[in-house]
Specification:
The structure holds two protein chains of two kinds. Chain A is mostly beta strands. Helix content of chain A is 0%, strand content 50%. In chain B, 0% of the residues lie in helices and 58% in strands. The chains are: A mainly beta, B mainly beta.
Chain lengths: 115, 109
């Protein structure tokens, strides 16, 4: 069964460093998402991406964040200068186009720890 | 914006039914989902219901939607130890979901 994959599973970085979190969505999906979950808190929407551009973004997704689909398979989240409060689990999700298949399929997450 | 609330903990005995509740604020929400998260794992979609439905049953899972009260529930029949996990209610459109804080379900032998 096709699934969303994410790498790495755990990333440790120093405050101020740049990190890139990688996701491989399901191959025929067209909509891509990033969510984050700070330990013990809710899963929060960050950004959605369709047709090579951002569709929606939340207040959390400020200028420190960017997303990219550099090729036909990867979808990345970059944090330019990490802060302690960026420590969280980051989930990528994808969904097919339209119809009843509107469920978002989530990856296993990348745990980001900022020291 | 949308606000989604869930109780944090639920304990049941193996074989009993579990009922996990969720309330939301935005009556225009179209899709209402239940996700399961096991320790160290990602989010697994369990089931979903559209806003024009009142009930959906899928094997041991029953979802009830009360649109008037903006209340969503997930019932798990014959709860097993493998059902122990965090259950998230997520509400919104296909474009964006708002998650509840999750309910930690503990199944006691």
């Amino acid at each position: 069964e096709p699934e969303v994959t994410q790498t790495p599973s755990h990333q440790v970085t120093q405050m101020g460093q740049e990190v890139i979190l990688r996701c491989v969505p399901i191959s025929n999906h067209l909509y891509f998402y990033w969510y984050r979950q700070i330990l013990g808190q809710k899963v929060e929407f960050l950004v959605s991406f369709y047709n090579n551009e951002i569709s929606e973004k939340s207040e959390i997704f400020d200028d420190q964040f960017s997303v990219e689909r550099p090729d036909g398979s990867n979808f990345t989240l970059k944090i330019r200068s990490t802060k302690l409060e960026d420590s969280a689990m980051y989930f990528c999700a994808s969904r097919p186009r339209g119809g009843l298949d509107n469920e978002q399929f989530f990856g296993p997450g990348t745990r980001l720890t900022v020291l | 914006g949308e606000d989604v609330e869930q109780s944090l903990f639920l304990s049941v005995r193996e074989g009993d039914s579990s009922v996990i509740n969720c309330t939301y604020t935005d009556s225009s929400s179209t899709y209402l989902y239940w996700y399961k998260q096991e320790p160290g794992a990602g989010l697994q979609l369990l089931t979903y219901i559209f806003s024009n439905m009142d009930m959906k049953q899928d094997q041991r899972l029953t979802v009830l939607l009360n649109k008037k009260d903006k209340h969503l529930s997930l019932r798990i029949a014959d709860t097993q130890t493998g059902d122990s996990a965090i259950y998230f209610c997520a509400v919104g459109s296909a474009r964006q979901l708002t998650f509840g804080s999750g309910t930690q379900l503990t199944v006691l032998p």
